[in-house]
Specification:
183 residues, Gyrase A, domain 2, alpha+beta, Topoisomerase I, Chain A, domain 4, 6 strands, two-stranded antiparallel sheet, 5 helices, single chain
């Protein structure tokens, strides 16, 4: 088992989970909610992410402002937001505003369930990587490349690495849940 490879794969999984968690709405408007939305720009000939065609800012906790660099695609950006995110953007001159209403208790419950699903998916990814590592250790032991003591030490080290990454996922989940529960 190559510890650096395992850590690298687990870090990629953790980064993926953290990016996924940033898309969950918490009652506060953040650019992360819309920056990866795909826009069909220039007559549908190019698929671009919103952050590639506009600056995205928040003016207050309830409003996202999108300022396209090329003002000619403002309508296409609005259509992309309507189609891909179910948001209701309004064009205000040369910018687009998206207002988020305050979250209800029902919304918070829905997002907490979504959060727990995303966290569990992250834990599953980490455990799958651990499973791959365990198979590598088993193959090395069966191929007489490592001794039984080395096998147990490697398995213990792999479990410690796994526990560390799962703890980081759980910590991110607790922080996000705290954000969700704030009014």
């Amino acid at each position: 088992m190559d510890e650096n490879v395992i850590r690298g794969r687990m870090q990629v999984a953790l980064d993926l989970v953290l990016k996924d968690l940033s898309t969950i709405r918490t009652g506060r408007a953040t650019p992360a909610l819309v920056e990866d939305i795909v826009i069909l720009a220039y007559g549908g000939s190019q698929k671009l992410r919103l952050q590639e065609v506009a600056s995205i800012t928040t003016t207050d906790p309830q409003t996202i402002v999108i300022d396209p660099w090329d003002k000619s695609i403002i309508g296409e950006i609005r259509q992309g937001l309507l189609a891909n995110a179910g948001l209701n953007p309004s064009i205000d001159g040369e910018i687009i505003r998206i207002s988020f209403p305050p979250m209800t208790g029902e919304d918070r419950d829905k997002y907490i369930k979504l959060l727990s699903t995303k966290l569990e998916n992250g834990r599953v990814m980490i455990r799958q990587i651990r499973g791959d590592g365990m198979q590598d250790i088993k193959k090395s032991f069966e191929g007489k490349e490592i001794t039984e003591d080395e096998k147990f030490a490697s398995e213990k080290k792999l479990q410690e690495i796994t526990d560390g990454f799962v703890k980081r996922i759980d910590g991110a989940g607790k922080a996000k849940e705290t954000e969700l529960l704030q009014i």
